[in-house]
């Protein structure tokens, strides 16, 4: 993709910790990422892996009373970590737009759509009311709302899910921010609408040239839209690379397992792959060694690093822990050994 | 919307009919009648018996009821036996008094409750919140009449800041003079009512704010770069005021009924006081008319709540 | 609409919202140990309740019923009158203990009755919906428009023997509606949940589902609402007594004692007659409220302290 | 029981403490200022009705509010006997069965119109016209010839009331069917003592008179003051009536407003009013207030304990010889067991006191000075019961003479703050003589319930504590005769009928005979104890030191003509 | 005879309005649909949100009142509640719900949850019952000590398996699975789907598998029906639908499936847009003038599509 090199966001060693029972636990644990102009960076991972936490850290929306953010998030020479509120308010909306997962609850039920879109224009542009109105209509048009003047006067509950998500996008792009964060923008939507929204997002990105941080847990969505991918597990990035690198040569056991558990078009009647165990919760998370190790117990401990770090296996393609080198699926081994695809139920 | 309102109003009719029957029966079950008390050597039992007969009090209750309803239908609620005046006239007079008291009380209630609710919600968990909640609990559990008595002793008789009885000074004259005098008479009771009855409003507002603070749309607003003050006022506070708006009708009707204690202690001639007097005097006509009025007011209050709700909350439609 | 299909709801922590607390009692306990005020309130409440209940066994009824006019308005501390005497020379302390017990009894009885009625109506109405709901709600509406205080006054005037039970029934009869509505709303939100459908497909009958499936899930409301009803009914009794519609003298109550503050002068002259009861009432309601608050937090996962 | 009562008298009077007594007039030696305004409080729970017309109102509060303007037609002496010198003079003619009223020609209504014969006639018409529904109409008034016919609507005029000088004249003659000894006294009920401004009211139909503005907002009076401003039910301002026929009123303004009973004591202490009544239960707490004088008067009333011994049937009291309470010794024992002196000393500081007979002492000669009543005497009470065969059981309670369990139900009104304690006290007293007394319905009865039960001879009443306030003519016939519905005990003995008849008989036109008749009746009543006289009370008023000339004395045309203040 | 035959099923919800709150219109949630489910097969029901899938499913298990039409179970009409009761219908027809949390009573132990249908439909002693519950837990691969736990103590996938255990407790013939995996993460989804298949094989259960995810449906079902606006737009075998979609709506659905192959994404996108344009531009071709779906027309033995008759003949000729 035509990823120009202009660096928008440079996240270095970001930690975000939540206070639970008087202790702080890292939900985002030493993450470093960069986002460039015109880039769609997809962040994938199971529920609870820390995707949203990362996003809210960038835009500074955590409650400082029970959250601790450390590390650097550099935006235009400005470190967003610990930035004062007034300054941050100038950046939010203007330089970073955000799209949330559930557009119904993310829109104020008592405000007209038009007002809600115009709100960010009020604080970031010098447009007068007339101009703002015109801009709102233009934005609605841009996100493919069939009758902008009508919709601008409606309330969120009067719109369909797809329409609402379009409105959310309109809000996010209102000030043409160079950075857009989209936290699971399509999870609440139907497949057909999901496709429309993703296409729209892409189009808009092309138009205004922003960098998009796209958060999702749907690998299909990533494959369809992203330029680069970061796979998260337990607050860490376990694999990172261009979309081709990650999908065509997935390396980390977690990435590979995920891809394998998708129902494949050509494996109709076969059993699906199952990842053993469950995603650990914030408090119970194992914080030493390879965090994914408990879920691939057949791998010998020796195959894991003691302090797994990201290895750059090819330019831009990073993978955590060395276990990927020896990783295999147990049934593959059996299959190889027994020569038959028959296998037993993998316990939980 | 008008259709719905009309339908709601029509639906009230059966309820009001049942209510009227109910209270009429209750009234008739009360021992004695308006003439029971008229026993002085200056009156003759025979004359009283005659008056009683003429008033129809010796008829079977259903005959009395039907004639009562018939007259009430034409807006004639009869004469007050005790006051020897048309019931509508008496209630009208008292209703105005109660209305003054209720309006000022509501204003004071909200003047206190809204900032308190906002602070408690905004600074949830801090000492501000704790103190406001403590004050709320105290005000809920203190018997109101004790406070009224203490206040009337201190500010009415002691410091002589406020009048201690009545609704208006007899020496007041001129339109503004009378209004001023009326307000002067209700300041103390309204402040007390306001202080003592704002708990539920404060709590509603507080929990609304606490809940709304966590809503996603607040996050959206912040992500737009809206300053915190505006986020609070326009998104959190405005949405939290919703249940309060909806509660407004109830607050009004609640105050109308709940002012009995204040009216009694401040000898303020309002409807609550009138009710107690009419029960004690077996003044059926006044009593039944009052209960009916309260019933209708409650129904209208509910309707008002719903209408307000549908106006302020676009998600609610009455059509 | 698309939002029906959204991902499972999660709370702030990203955990699925667990509608029931992990084992009710444990959470409540945790809530109390984390909240000093609630703990203190609970202890005070228990001390008052137990004090009144146990204490009343040791108070001979003559102490609070027999008039001894020579001891009228006896000062506190004189002649064995720890808290002084009242207008009839009766012992204020004994009246307070027994009055406290009676008022608490009234409060709890009303609260329990209101909960029973409220739950039944709420369950039937919310679960069955349709015409059952319609009828029950119209009845509820009707009771809602009755001016409670007024009707109470009239009823007290009518009944030939006014006693604790009449009072309890009366307060209940005029006070169950909001509770019923509360439960109805809760039931409605529960009835939408799939476990109710699952029970139906499992062949359970409606009553089973209502009382064994749905009811336990709204039981957290019960604790909160009970405390509220309790405080309200004690308040009603006090108010009625002040207005002159109180229980007979043989049944001391908080209301009767507080009503000694009938006018500013005797209020100042005989503070021992009404002040202890008033303070008791405030302390009791306060602690009940704090306990209720804590229970409410325990019931609402979002507000839980930890 | 003459001898027995005398023996106990000394002991009982020694236990009762110093008798309270109040002056009936304020003392103020300072000179009155000219003009000045005065405030007066009216202690009431309810707003006053505001029927400012004697013929239509039977309400004490209304009389209090209109006392500044409303004046009686006739002057009386301190024994309530009519004397000349008021707005009109009254002359009775025994033989002709007439009363002649002669109006003082100087008397004018506050609008300047003179008081005329029509005004007096109109007052009777207002009372008797069925359309006004006045409760003032009584059987006594029907003693005027033609009154009953007018009342029944059969006549347009009252034939027995004549105006020989014409309507605008100054003379009215009343024709009676029968002359009564009480007619010489004010409050007798046969002669109406007020007038109504005919010229002013004649256009108002009788039916709407009571609610008309002419009665309620702008009433006319011929007394010293006239109504100037009114807040319905709450307060009224009175200003001098410049047409007043007597001495020129001294105050420029009198304001009267209602005061809740519960704040009345506080109001006295803070001197919020120049004149304000004192509630007996609160007297102790206000009596030391500085700058306030307490004046008092004993009203014409008494409280009593009555025993139900029968029923009112077909217009007659029918005594039931087998009634539970129809045992004179039981009734006496109950009376002797009451520690009335002690109770009243404690609860009212002596403002309320025990009375020995059913005729209040203020009636002078009619009052039986030798009557002792029922002073507290437990031993005697026990003895009486023992004699009568009420035996004590193991539980300490007596059974009736037939050996059956005896429970006596006492009906008593709530209202007084101390009523509960007092009832309990008496119940304990009776318990000490072995009588099981319970409150009817287990509680004090609210006013209406009480009278409802008492009037209808409810089965759950054996005895009841009531009170009567009397008019200034004390004939007990209305309250105790065989045909009187107000005879709530339902006693009816030939002796009683005879004694009562004698009081109002022709022979009683002779004052000495009447006095003797009254005494005989009082003796009889105390002997039979159907009705036990209990108490009467001082009615005390707190008056600010700056008030001059205020008195509670009876007789004068209108005290307010003389009231003044001595400082601003 | 099929296990279940749905015949012209209609479920309409009244819309009330006007002065007297009378019924003025209906939501045609399910509007005349027909399909059959054979014994032991998984039948897929696909459609966008609000198309009436759940309503259909609920009607089949008897949770929704049928406006008209028939549901034949082994040839017997079960639209009537008494009928269902009589034949203990729900012993044979069970349901798995989308939201595992909300479908398990949070106040009940797992044992009581799974035992509920057993207690209602079978008479067993306590020990028998407990053994049966343990056996069921074993079938869905959960440790037997789970019986003492409460639902919230399990992960989403485990909870969904508990739901499956409850559904199979009475050896049902048919299970309606209403989006059983939509709320689950990918890896957990795989677990649940595996179990469902495994149990099906073991007990010869039929599924009505409701979903909007065509990938999952393809993995699970041999026959499927596409639902749109309360009606069926296309019915056929997996091959018919995925390889030879006829209705524009089916095509849209297929085009919208995100592929895990980034290299083809530009082409996919182009295709998607083309389908979308066709859908937008030729509404009249696919829907009647009221925007309603046409009646289904058979084009092959297994494949039916809702198109105007002339279109169908054209397609038939192409296929034939
Ligand atoms: N405010 C908070 N306080 C405590 N823990 C939190 C908070 N917010 C999130 N967490 C925890 O942090 C971890 C990461 O949560 P996050 O919401 O970032 O996950 P996610 O990847 O976005 O998941 P999902 O796909 O469900 O949105 C989770 O374990 C969650 O429980
Ligand atoms: N009780 C009801 N009253 C009125 N309309 C209803 C009711 N239940 C469902 N509907 C409507 O019927 C239609 C079909 O609903 P249904 O739940 O069956 O859709 P679905 O295909 O299962 O959607 P989803 O994928 O969101 O679960 C929708 O338009 C819905 O709004
Ligand atoms: Mg997230
Ligand atoms: Mg569905």
From TrEMBL, chain A:
Its membrane topology is listed as: Peripheral membrane protein
Keyword vocabulary terms for this entry: ATP-binding, Cell membrane, Hydrolase, Membrane, Nucleotide-binding, Transport
User: Primary place of residence?
Assistant: membrane
Q: Which PROSITE patterns match?
A: ABC_TRANSPORTER_1 (PS00211), ABC_TRANSPORTER_2 (PS50893)
Molecular function via GO: ATP binding; hydrolase activity
Q: Which domain of life is it from?
A: Bacteria
Question: Where is the ABC transporter domain positioned along the sequence?
Answer: 9-259
Q: Sorted alphabetically, which Pfam families does this protein's record hold?
A: ABC_tran, oligo_HPY
Query: Where is it localised?
Result: Cell membrane
Which family does the record claim for this protein?
Answer: Belongs to the ABC transporter superfamily.
Q: What is this protein called?
A: ABC transporter ATP-binding protein
> From which source organism is this entry?
Schleiferilactobacillus harbinensis
UniProtKB/TrEMBL annotation, chain B:
Compartments in which it is found: Cell membrane
Q: What is its membrane topology?
A: Multi-pass membrane protein
Transmembrane intervals: 9-27, 99-120, 132-155, 175-196, 241-266, 286-312
Protein's UniProt keywords contain Transmembrane: yes
The GO cellular component terms are: plasma membrane
Q: Which InterPro entries match?
A: BPD_transp_1_N, MetI-like, MetI-like_sf
One of the Pfam families matching this protein, by short name: BPD_transp_1
ABC transmembrane type-1 domain sequence ranges: 95-305
Alphabetically, which GO biological process terms does the record hold? transmembrane transport
Sequence similarity: Belongs to the binding-protein-dependent transport system permease family.
- Protein name in UniProt: Oligopeptide transport protein
TrEMBL record, chain C:
Q: How does it sit in the membrane?
A: Multi-pass membrane protein
Q: Quote the cellular component terms of the Gene Ontology held in the record.
A: plasma membrane
Pfam families reported for this sequence: BPD_transp_1, OppC_N
Coiled-coil regions listed: none
Q: Which domain of life is it from?
A: Bacteria
Q: Does the record bear Disulfide bond in its keywords?
A: no
Which intervals hold domain ABC transmembrane type-1? Answer: 100-292
One GO BP: transmembrane transport
For whether the record's keyword set contains Transferase, the answer is no
Q: Which UniProt keywords apply?
A: Cell membrane, Membrane, Transmembrane, Transmembrane helix, Transport
Location in or out of the cell: Cell membrane
Location, primary (coarse class): membrane
Task: State which residue ranges cross the membrane.
Answer: 37-59, 105-127, 139-158, 164-183, 214-236, 272-292
Name the Gene3D superfamilies for this protein. MetI-like (1.10.3720.10)
Which family is this sequence assigned to?
A: Belongs to the binding-protein-dependent transport system permease family.
Q: What is this protein called?
A: Oligopeptide ABC transporter permease component
Q: Which organism is it from?
A: Schleiferilactobacillus harbinensis DSM 16991
From TrEMBL, chain E:
Q: Where in the cell is it found?
A: Cell membrane
Is Nucleotide-binding there in the keyword field? yes
Q: Which Pfam families match?
A: ABC_tran, oligo_HPY
Organism from which the protein derives: Schleiferilactobacillus harbinensis DSM 16991
User: Where does the UniProt entry say this protein principally localizes?
Assistant: membrane
The way this protein sits in the membrane is described as: Peripheral membrane protein
Q: Name one GO cellular component term.
A: plasma membrane
Task: Write out the entry's keywords from A to Z.
Answer: ATP-binding, Nucleotide-binding, Peptide transport, Protein transport, Transport
- Is this entry keyworded Protein transport? yes
Per the UniProt record, the lineage of the source organism begins with: Bacteria, Bacillati, Bacillota, Bacilli, Lactobacillales
What's the protein name? Peptide ABC transporter ATP-binding protein
Alphabetically, the GO molecular function entries are: ATP binding; ATP hydrolysis activity
């Amino acid at each position: 993709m035509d990823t120009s090199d202009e660096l928008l966001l440079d996240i270095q060693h970001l930690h975000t910790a939540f206070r639970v029972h008087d202790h702080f636990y890292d939900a985002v644990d030493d993450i470093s990422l960069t986002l460039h102009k015109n880039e769609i960076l997809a962040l994938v991972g199971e529920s609870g892996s820390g995707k949203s936490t990362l996003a809210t850290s960038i835009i500074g929306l955590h409650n400082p009373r029970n959250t601790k953010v450390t590390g650097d998030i550099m935006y235009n020479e400005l470190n967003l970590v610990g930035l004062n509120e007034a300054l941050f308010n100038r950046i939010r909306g203007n330089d970073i737009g955000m799209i949330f997962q559930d557009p119904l609850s993310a829109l104020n039920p008592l405000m007209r759509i038009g007002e809600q879109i115009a709100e960010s224009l009020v604080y970031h542009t010098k447009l007068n009311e007339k101009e703002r109105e015109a801009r709102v209509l233009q934005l609605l048009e841009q996100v493919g709302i069939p009758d902008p003047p009508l919709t601008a006067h409606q309330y969120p509950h009067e719109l369909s899910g797809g329409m609402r998500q379009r409105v959310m996008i309109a809000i996010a792009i209102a000030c043409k921010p160079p950075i857009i964060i989209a936290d699971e923008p399509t999870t609440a939507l139907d497949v057909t609408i999901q496709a429309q929204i993703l296409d729209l997002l892409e189009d808009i990105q092309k138009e205004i040239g922003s960098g998009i941080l796209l958060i999702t847990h749907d690998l299909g969505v990533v494959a369809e839209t992203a330029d680069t991918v970061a796979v998260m597990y337990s607050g860490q990035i376990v694999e990172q690379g261009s979309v081709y690198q990650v999908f065509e040569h997935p390396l980390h056991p977690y990435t590979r397992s995920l891809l394998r558990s998708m129902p494949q078009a050509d494996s109709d009647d076969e059993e699906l792959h199952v990842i053993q165990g469950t995603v650990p919760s914030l408090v119970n998370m194992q914080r030493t060694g390879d965090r994914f190790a408990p879920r691939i117990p057949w791998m010998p401990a020796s195959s894991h690093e003691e302090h797994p770090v990201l290895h750059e296996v090819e330019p831009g393609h990073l993978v955590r822990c060395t276990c990927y080198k020896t990783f295999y699926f147990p049934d593959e081994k059996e299959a190889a050994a027994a020569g038959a695809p028959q296998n037993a139920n993998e316990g939980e | 919307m008008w259709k719905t309102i009309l339908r709601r109003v029509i639906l009230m009719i059966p309820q009001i009919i049942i209510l009227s029957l109910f209270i009429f029966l209750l009234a008739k079950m009360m021992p004695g009648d308006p003439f029971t008390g008229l026993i002085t050597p200056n009156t003759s039992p025979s004359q009283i018996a005659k008056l009683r007969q003429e008033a129809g009090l010796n008829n079977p209750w259903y005959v009395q009821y039907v004639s009562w309803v018939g007259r009430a239908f034409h807006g004639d609620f009869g004469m007050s036996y005790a006051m020897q005046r048309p019931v509508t006239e008496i209630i009208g007079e008292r209703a105005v008094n109660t209305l003054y008291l209720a309006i000022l009380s509501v204003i004071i209630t909200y003047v206190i409750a809204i900032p308190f609710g906002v602070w408690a919600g905004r600074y949830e968990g801090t000492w501000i919140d704790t103190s406001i909640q403590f004050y709320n609990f105290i005000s809920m559990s203190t018997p109101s009449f004790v406070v009224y008595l203490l206040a009337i002793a201190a500010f009415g008789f002691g410091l002589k800041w406020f009048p201690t009885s009545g609704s208006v000074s007899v020496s007041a004259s001129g339109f503004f003079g009378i209004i001023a005098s009326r307000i002067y008479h209700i300041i103390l009771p309204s402040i007390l009512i306001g202080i003592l009855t704002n708990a539920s409003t404060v709590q509603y507002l507080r929990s609304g704010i606490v809940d709304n603070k966590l809503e996603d749309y607040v996050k959206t607003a912040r992500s737009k770069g809206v300053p915190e003050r505006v986020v609070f006022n326009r998104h959190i506070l405005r949405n939290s005021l919703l249940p309060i708006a909806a509660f407004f009708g109830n607050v009004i009707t609640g105050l109308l009924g709940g002012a009995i204690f204040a009216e009694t202690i401040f000898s303020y001639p309002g409807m609550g006081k009138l009710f107690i007097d009419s029960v004690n005097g077996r003044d059926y006509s006044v009593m039944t008319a009052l209960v009916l009025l309260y019933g209708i007011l409650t129904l209208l209050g509910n309707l008002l709540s719903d209408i307000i709700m549908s106006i302020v909350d676009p998600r609610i439609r009455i059509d | 609409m698309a939002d029906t299909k959204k991902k499972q709801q999660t709370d702030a922590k990203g955990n699925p919202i667990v509608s029931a607390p992990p084992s009710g009692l444990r959470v409540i306990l945790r809530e109390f140990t984390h909240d000093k005020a609630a703990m203190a309130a609970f202890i005070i409440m228990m001390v008052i309740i137990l004090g009144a209940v146990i204490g009343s066994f040791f108070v001979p009824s003559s102490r609070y019923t027999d008039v001894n006019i020579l001891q009228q308005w006896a000062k506190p501390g004189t002649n064995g009158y720890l808290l002084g005497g009242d207008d009839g020379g009766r012992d204020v302390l004994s009246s307070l203990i027994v009055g406290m017990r009676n008022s608490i009894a009234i409060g709890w009885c009303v609260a329990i009755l209101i909960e029973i009625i409220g739950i039944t109506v709420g369950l039937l109405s919310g679960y069955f919906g349709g015409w059952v709901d319609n009828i029950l709600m119209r009845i509820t509406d009707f009771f809602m428009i009755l001016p409670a205080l007024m009707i109470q006054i009239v009823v007290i005037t009518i009944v030939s023997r006014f006693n604790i039970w009449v009072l309890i029934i009366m307060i209940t009869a005029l006070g169950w509606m909001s509770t019923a509505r509360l439960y109805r709303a809760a039931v409605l939100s529960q009835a939408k949940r799939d476990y109710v459908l699952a029970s139906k497909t499992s062949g359970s009958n409606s009553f089973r589902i209502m009382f064994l499936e749905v009811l336990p899930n709204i039981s957290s409301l019960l604790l909160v609402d009970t405390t509220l009803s309790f405080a309200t009914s004690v308040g009603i009794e006090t108010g009625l007594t002040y207005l002159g519609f109180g229980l007979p003298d043989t049944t001391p109550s908080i209301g009767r004692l507080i009503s000694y503050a009938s006018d500013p002068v005797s209020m100042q002259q005989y503070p021992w007659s009404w002040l202890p009861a008033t303070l008791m009432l405030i302390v009791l309601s306060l602690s009940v409220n704090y306990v209720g608050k804590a229970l409410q937090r325990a019931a609402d996962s979002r507000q839980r302290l930890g | 029981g003459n001898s027995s009562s005398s023996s106990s008298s000394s002991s009982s009077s020694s236990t009762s403490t110093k008798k309270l007594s109040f002056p009936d007039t304020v003392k103020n030696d300072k000179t009155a200022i000219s003009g000045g305004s005065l405030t007066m409080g009216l202690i009431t729970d309810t707003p006053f009705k505001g029927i400012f017309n004697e013929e239509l109102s039977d309400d004490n509060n209304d009389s209090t509010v209109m006392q500044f303007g409303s004046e009686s037609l006739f002057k009386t002496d301190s024994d309530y006997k009519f004397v000349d010198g008021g707005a009109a003079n009254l002359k009775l003619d025994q033989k002709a069965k007439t009363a002649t009223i002669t109006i003082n020609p100087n008397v004018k209504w506050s609008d300047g119109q003179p008081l005329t014969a029509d005004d007096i006639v109109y007052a009777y018409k207002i009372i008797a016209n069925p359309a006004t529904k006045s409760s003032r109409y009584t059987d006594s008034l029907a003693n005027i010839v033609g009154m009953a016919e007018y009342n029944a609507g059969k006549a347009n005029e009252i034939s027995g009331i004549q105006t020989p000088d014409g309507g605008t004249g100054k003379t009215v003659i009343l024709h009676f069917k029968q002359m009564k000894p009480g007619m010489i006294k004010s409050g007798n009920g046969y002669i109406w003592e007020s007038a109504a401004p005919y010229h002013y009211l004649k256009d108002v139909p009788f039916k709407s008179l009571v609610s008309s503005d002419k009665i309620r907002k702008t009433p006319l009076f011929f007394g010293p003051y006239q109504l100037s401003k009114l807040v319905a039910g709450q307060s009224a301002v009175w200003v001098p009536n410049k047409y007043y026929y007597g001495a020129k009123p001294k105050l420029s303004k009198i304001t009267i407003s209602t005061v809740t009973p519960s704040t009345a004591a506080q109001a006295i202490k803070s001197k919020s009013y120049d004149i304000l009544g004192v509630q007996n239960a609160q007297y102790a707490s206000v009596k030391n207030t500085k700058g306030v004088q307490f004046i008092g008067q004993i009203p014409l009333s008494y409280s009593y304990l009555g025993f139900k011994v029968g029923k009112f049937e077909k217009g007659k009291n029918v005594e039931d010889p087998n009634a539970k309470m129809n045992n004179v010794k039981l009734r006496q024992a109950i009376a002797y067991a009451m520690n009335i002196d002690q109770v009243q000393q404690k609860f009212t500081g002596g403002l309320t006191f025990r009375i020995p007979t059913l005729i209040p002492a203020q009636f002078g000669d009619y009052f039986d000075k030798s009557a002792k009543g029922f002073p507290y005497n437990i031993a005697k009470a026990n003895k009486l019961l023992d004699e009568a065969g009420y035996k004590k059981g193991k539980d300490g309670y007596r059974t009736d003479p037939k050996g059956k369990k005896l429970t006596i139900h006492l009906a008593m009104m709530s209202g007084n703050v101390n009523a509960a304690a007092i009832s309990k006290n008496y119940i304990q007293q009776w318990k000490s003589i072995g009588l099981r007394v319970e409150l009817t319905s287990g509680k004090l009865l609210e006013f209406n319930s009480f009278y409802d039960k008492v009037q209808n001879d409810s089965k759950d009443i054996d005895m009841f504590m009531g009170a009567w306030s009397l008019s200034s003519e004390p004939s007990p016939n209305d309250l105790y005769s065989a045909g009187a519905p107000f005879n709530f005990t339902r006693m009816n003995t030939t002796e009683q009928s005879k004694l009562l008849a004698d009081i109002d008989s022709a022979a009683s036109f002779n004052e000495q005979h009447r006095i003797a008749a009254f005494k005989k009746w009082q003796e009889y009543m105390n002997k039979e104890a159907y009705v036990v006289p209990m108490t009467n009370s001082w009615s005390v008023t707190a008056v600010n030191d700056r008030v001059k000339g205020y008195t509670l004395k009876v007789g004068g045309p209108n005290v307010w003509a003389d009231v003044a203040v001595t400082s601003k | 005879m099929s296990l279940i035959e749905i015949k012209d099923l209609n479920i309409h919800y009244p819309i009330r309005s006007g002065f007297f709150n009378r019924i003025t219109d209906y939501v045609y949630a399910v509007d005349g649909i027909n399909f059959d489910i054979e014994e032991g097969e998984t039948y897929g029901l696909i459609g966008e949100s609000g198309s009436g899938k759940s309503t259909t499913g609920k009607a089949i298990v008897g949770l929704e009142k049928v406006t008209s039409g028939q549901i034949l179970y082994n040839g017997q009409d079960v639209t009537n509640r008494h009928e269902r009761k009589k034949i203990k219908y729900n012993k044979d027809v069970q349901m798995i719900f989308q939201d595992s949390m909300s479908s398990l009573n949070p106040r009940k132990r797992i044992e009581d949850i799974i035992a509920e249908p057993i207690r209602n439909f079978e008479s067993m002693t306590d020990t028998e019952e407990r053994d049966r519950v343990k056996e069921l837990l074993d079938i869905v691969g959960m440790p037997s000590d789970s019986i003492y736990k409460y639902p919230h103590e399990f992960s989403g996938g485990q909870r969904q398996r508990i739901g499956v255990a409850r559904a199979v407790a009475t050896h049902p013939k048919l299970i309606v699975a209403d989006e059983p995996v939509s709320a689950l993460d990918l890896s957990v989804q795989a677990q649940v789907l595996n179990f469902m298949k495994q149990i099906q094989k073991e007990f010869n259960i039929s599924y009505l598998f409701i979903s909007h995810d065509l990938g999952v449906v393809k993995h699970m079902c041999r026959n499927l029906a596409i639902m749109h606006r309360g009606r069926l737009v296309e019915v056929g075998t997996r091959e018919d639908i995925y390889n030879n979609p006829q209705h524009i709506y089916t095509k849209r659905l297929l085009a919208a499936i995100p592929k895990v192959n980034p290299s083809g994404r530009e082409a996919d996108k182009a295709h998607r847009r083309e389908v979308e344009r066709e859908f937008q531009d030729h509404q009249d071709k696919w829907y009647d003038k009221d925007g309603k779906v046409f009646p289904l027309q058979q084009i092959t033995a297994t494949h039916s599509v809702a198109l105007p008759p002339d279109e169908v003949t054209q397609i038939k000729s192409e296929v034939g």
